[in-house]
Design a protein that fits this description.
Keywords: DNA-binding, Metal-binding, Nucleus, Transcription, Transcription regulation. One of its GO terms (molecular function) is DNA-binding transcription factor activity, RNA polymerase II-specific. Pfam families: Fungal_trans, Zn_clus. InterPro entries: Notoamide_regulator (IPR053187), XnlR_reg_dom (IPR007219), Zn2-C6_fun-type_DNA-bd_sf (IPR036864), Zn2Cys6_DnaBD (IPR001138). There is one protein chain. This protein is mostly helical. Among the domains are: about 60 residues, no CATH class; about 100 residues, no CATH class. The protein has a two-stranded antiparallel ribbon with strand order 1-2. Helix 21 runs antiparallel to helix 22 and helix 21 packs parallel to helix 23.
Length: about 675
């Protein structure tokens, strides 16, 4: 009984679908066993498929929640949200549209017949013209009749200069291969109305983002954190109306239409207003002894240099550098950055170091390129240590705004440490070059040149791997190396141009200016190609203006069959200058004109000149360069590596002032 009870219990515990030992089938017996079926899961409301995506989301291939009248994606991007109807709905809409047009046409013809019986007009064209001029309102019904291709909602106003405009443009190009756009601007402001009435917060955020992404990393002349903090709070310690308008102008010059790169009408209209405001604000704020005035003076000077009036521009730059010295930026501790708020000590110290190094950098570059006397004799005492820089650079990223990718590690603080050491050599060399050609090179001068070149080589060898272009092609790293190569070229030019061919000069195996110069120019050309491959040429800092001309001039002299590198370099430099000319001043077109004149003078094999170069220069000659541009130049810029005239017995290349070069070579057969 006990065994029977246990068996019964075991049988009761088994699932109905499981056969027991007692009911096991025999070898000759077929037994059908029921297979359980899982019940279909209930469909939750939030898992239901969107019945119909809107037109914009379908074109962009993004998920649409199907909300009406505007879905979530279109509301976020401020896009026009339309829903394409079914085939039956489209047919009904088309039929309704045709009926409305028929009614409108019948009404219009009836009115015309009635009116023309009284006027006696005979020509159909005459009838329509007279009737439309007399009463254009009769066309209202016809124009209001909807077409099947018309959107169901009225189009929104144009978004103007903004990140949103780029999103809208990209939404109309579903097959675009460009990188994804960022969702929000790099810099977001909400108090721009306290400083200017020319732009709203949306446009200001976009333009300031362009400036801080592309222009400011070269020199770090403006500390982003302190500037934005004071802009939002209304404080004038690190912000002013003059500085705000200056940065907006820089951002406006870097802005472009994502769909039509040459369409800068909105940017040019805003740029004119900003520049006009700059002129008035300078008169009212130039006597303010604050840091924003010094920063604005330097940046206005840079603008003047791009306008082809660097004689005025360098005065602004040196004036700003002098104001900065008066504020004590060159000292290790400046009263302007003092604070009693402990939480602000670190931010103010970083701001002091960035801005001081930036001021020293710009005035040294201006002294080198335009042959001016530097205002600062030596580097600022306040600078980042390498240990401090390494800590500050942790987790720092740079993105090519307005795009999300690619992402780079800029190592801004570390780069600033080493750049400051390079600028010290630039500043010193610029002062050394000023005594020529009034005096002849001496033995001591040659020894100075050799030692300076050794210092430059030691600087290059000391760079950490994170600052090498092969490992880190961030824009600020590439421009740092272009700066180095251009500095080597400038040093060698002093000796190449001022050496007396009739006298014997010292021979140093490790300092041959001509061969060293050519090697640096070769590397500079490769860096231009690397910049193009890594970032394109639509957005470039204005310092690239100088490197494009230097690289382009050298490329012309190196055009050879079966060596296509220099054709690519020439194309990159010319296209880069052309992109800059769309947003910046006359200097860009003057550089393009210089390259064109040198090409005409040297007459290289036409097959070696890229088609894009020919197209840009043809456009330049037709409507970009005029006699006014020639007469308006007021520049001390020196063009190096100019091919010597045929039959010249001296050096193969010479240097000439840009203004003099264009005036002497330009035949003035221009529009």
């Amino acid at each position: 009984m006990q065994g029977s009870s246990d068996a019964s219990s075991a049988s009761d515990d088994l699932s109905p679908s499981q056969p027991t030992l007692d009911s096991a089938p025999s070898a000759n017996r077929n037994l059908k066993i029921a297979i359980p079926r899982l019940a279909p899961p209930s469909v939750k409301a939030n898992q239901q498929r969107t019945p119909r995506a809107c037109v914009a989301c379908r074109a962009r291939k993004t998920k649409c929640d199907g909300r009406k009248p505007v879905c979530r994606q279109c509301r976020r991007l401020d896009l026009v949200c339309n829903y394409a109807g079914s085939k039956r709905e489209r047919q009904q809409l088309e039929l309704e549209s045709v009926r409305n047009k028929v009614v409108a046409y019948e009404s219009l013809l009836s009115d015309i017949i009635t009116d023309t019986q009284q006027t006696g007009a005979s020509s159909i064209e005459d009838i329509l013209n007279r009737h439309f001029q007399a009463s254009p309102d009769v066309f209202a019904a016809l124009l209001a009749a909807r077409s099947i291709s018309d959107p169901q909602l009225s189009p929104r106003p144009k978004p103007g200069i903004s990140l949103n405009r780029m999103h809208i443009t990209l939404a109309t190009k579903p097959n675009s291969t460009s990188h994804p756009l960022t969702e929000t601007p790099l810099v977001q402001v909400s108090n721009i109305q306290s400083w200017t009435d020319l732009v709203d917060n949306t446009t200001a955020s976009h333009l300031l983002s362009l400036f801080f992404a592309w222009e400011n990393p070269t020199w770090r002349l403006v500390d982003q954190e302190m500037f934005i903090r004071d802009l939002e709070s209304g404080s004038k310690r690190f912000c002013s109306s003059l500085l705000v308008h200056t940065l907006l102008f820089f951002g406006c010059s870097s802005s472009y239409h994502l769909g039509r790169i040459t369409d800068r009408r909105e940017e040019k209209a805003l740029g004119k207003k900003l520049y006009s405001a700059l002129q008035h604000l300078w008169q009212s704020e130039k006597d303010d002894a604050g840091l924003p005035t010094a920063q604005s003076s330097i940046m206005i000077g840079l603008l003047c240099c791009t306008f082809g009036i660097d004689r005025l521009g360098t005065r602004y730059i040196m004036h700003g550098a002098q104001l900065s010295r008066q504020l004590g930026l060159h000292r290790e501790s400046a009263p302007y950055f003092a604070t009693d708020v402990e939480a602000d000590v670190g931010s103010l110290s970083r701001c002091h170091k960035f801005v001081a190094c930036g001021v020293f950098d710009v005035q040294a570059l201006a002294a080198q390129v335009y042959r001016k006397t530097p205002v600062w004799d030596e580097p600022p005492a306040a600078s980042f240590s390498q240990e401090e820089a390494a800590v500050s650079d942790e987790d720092e990223e740079w993105r090519p705004y307005p795009f999300q990718t690619p992402v780079f590690r800029p190592f801004h603080h570390t780069a600033l440490c080493f750049r400051n050491k390079l600028v010290a050599i630039v500043n010193e060399t610029a002062s050394f070059a000023l005594k020529f050609p009034d005096v002849k090179l001496t033995q001591d001068d040659w020894e100075y040149g050799r030692q300076t070149y050794q210092r430059l080589q030691e600087w290059r060898a000391s760079l950490p791997s994170v600052l090498l272009p092969d490992e880190n092609p961030a824009p600020n790293i590439l421009t740092l190396h272009m700066y180095y190569q251009a500095t080597v070229v400038a040093l060698c030019q002093i000796f190449s141009l001022n050496a007396d061919p009739t006298s014997i000069h010292p021979h140093y195996p490790d300092f041959d200016p001509e061969s060293i110069k050519l090697q640096s120019l070769d590397i500079l050309g490769s860096l231009v190609l690397l910049f193009q491959a890594s970032h394109g040429l639509r957005s470039v800092p204005i310092v690239m203006l100088h490197y494009f001309l230097v690289g382009g001039m050298h490329a012309i002299s190196q055009l050879r069959p079966m060596d296509f590198k220099w054709s690519f370099v020439l194309e990159a430099c010319v296209v880069g200058l052309w992109h800059l000319s769309l947003g910046w001043g006359r200097m860009c077109t003057a550089f393009l004109r210089t390259i064109e004149l040198i090409l005409e003078a040297t007459k290289p094999d036409p097959t070696l000149v890229p088609p894009k170069v020919t197209a840009v220069l043809r456009l330049l000659k037709s409507n970009l360069w005029t006699a006014t541009d020639v007469t308006s130049l007021s520049t001390d810029y020196v063009v190096h590596h100019v091919p010597a005239a045929a039959g010249h017995s001296g050096p193969q290349f010479r240097a000439a002032g840009l203004e003099q070069l264009i005036r002497s070579m330009d035949d003035f057969a221009i529009s």
